[in-house]
């Protein structure tokens, strides 16, 4: 019984606070927000925010394994939100260029008649 208790305590002691992962995840969430995640990928951005907040609560409760898992998930969600936002912005810009080309073609056709 004493051996089991020592092994259990050693297992718990080896789990360290995932401070580095938390910092990386928070940076990813901030990046997603500044990329326009709220506007272009609101579901993914909210998921990332919810998970990073849950990870912070797990850190406060010293449940480092859960905090690590949630922080990693938040990072993935945030990166997806940022990528979706950049993609949506690029598509919007491409659509604007296509519209400009269409207008220019119409103008050229009108002037050549």
Lay out the secondary structure.
Blueprint: H1 2-14, H2 19-34, H3 37-40, H4 42-60, H5 64-112
Helix pairs in contact: 2-4, 2-5, 4-5
Choose one word for the global shape: rod-shaped
Low-confidence stretches: none
Structural class: mainly alpha
Largest sheet: none
Share of helical residues:
over 70%
Helices, by number, come to: 5
What Rg, in angstroms, do the CA atoms define? 24 Å
Rounded mean pLDDT score: 90
The sequence of SSEs as H and E is: HHHHH
Total beta strand runs: 0
For the termini, the CA-CA separation is 96 Å
Give the amount of beta strand, in percent: under 5%
Written account of the structure:
This protein has helices at residues 2-14, 19-34, 37-40, 42-60, 64-112. It is mainly alpha-helical and 113 residues long. The chain has a domain at 17-88. The mean pLDDT is 90.
Features:
mainly alpha, 5 helices
In summary, what is this structure?
This protein is mostly helical and 113 residues long. It has a domain at 17-88.
């Amino acid at each position: 019984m004493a051996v089991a208790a020592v092994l259990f305590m050693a297992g718990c002691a080896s789990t360290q606070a995932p401070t580095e992962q938390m910092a990386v995840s928070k940076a990813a969430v901030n990046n997603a927000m500044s990329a326009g995640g709220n506007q272009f990928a609101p579901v993914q951005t909210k998921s990332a925010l919810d998970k990073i907040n849950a990870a912070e609560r797990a850190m406060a409760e010293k449940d480092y394994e859960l905090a690590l898992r949630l922080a990693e998930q938040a990072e993935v969600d945030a990166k997806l939100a940022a990528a979706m936002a950049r993609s949506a912005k690029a598509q919007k810009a491409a659509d604007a260029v296509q519209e400009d080309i269409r207008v220019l073609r119409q103008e050229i056709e009108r002037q050549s008649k």
